[in-house]
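quick one: S-adenosylmethionine bound model?
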Amino acid sequence: MSATKEQHSDAARDMWETTNDDYEKFRPSHDKAGVKALLDRLGVMDNVSQRNGTPPTNDVTAKYDVLDVGAGTGKCTRVIKDVLGEDARIVALDPVAGMIRQLKAAVPGVDAFVGPCEAIPLPDNSVKAVVSSQSFHFYANEAALREIHRVLIPGGKFGINFTADDEKSPLVHGVYELIRKYMYPECPEYYLNPLLDTSWKDCFDAAPLFTPLQEHIFPWENQQTLPDAESVVKLFMTYSAIAREPDVRKECAEQMVKLLTTDPAIKQANGTALEIPRLSALYWCTKNVQ
Ligand SMILES: C[S@@+](CC[C@H](N)C(=O)[O-])C[C@H]1O[C@@H](n2cnc3c(N)ncnc32)[C@H](O)[C@@H]1O
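yep, here:
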């Protein structure tokens, strides 16, 4: 069976309505150094620390410091809050109601809405910075960029954070090659590896809404480790690239167990944990005022 990019996105959202518990349990927290580096480039760090009850003059119209779009269960939202502190005015948006339920439980005190990036339920010029963490592949289109542009204040910034698995790792490469065999043929490679296929950037060419994207890519400080092959399978089966029919998912999961327990370059040595090395792939730009 094949699927368009849109059908694939729908399948992933359906999958996460029922598997958001596994998402919350097995996906890692975001690397704090990566989130901090992005927030720094988005110019919100100083703003929050200097506010002390009085908004800086360039911040008068912004209701929020940060909009976390495609926020999921709030894996990045909670790190943003941790970096910026309790005073930070954060709002989160995701189209999957189950993900937003998890986010509200995990990150109390943050405003959170259910909806897609293509229709952000916020007024014009109401946000200082928009952050997209590990989700831009879903809304890499002109409609979403127009909405991000609309809600940003003049001079506001948009940042993208991909938590990219490092394919130099034999484990990641082996699992990715397996997932590629089971992905819908029409599913763009960037759903799995946005560093290998960077065509998600093409949407920025449609209209001059933002300054050119800048980028900075570096390894996480604290990598995720998992205790056994079963947990590694649970993690990768939350990936949208493998949002497929139940029988296809079952076969993929079985093949993954086989790979992780028999491949000499991958299988777990006695008493060691399995590491999933990742990179923070950061991209940022500034709203153009037209
Ligand atoms: C891999 S998850 C990332 C979630 C979270 N940001 C994180 O870092 O864990 C991708 C998220 O994008 C969301 N998403 C899918 N389509 C979207 C759209 N059109 N607009 C905004 N978010 C979308 C999904 O519901 C999902 O929660």
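DSSP finds nine helices and nine strands in the chain.
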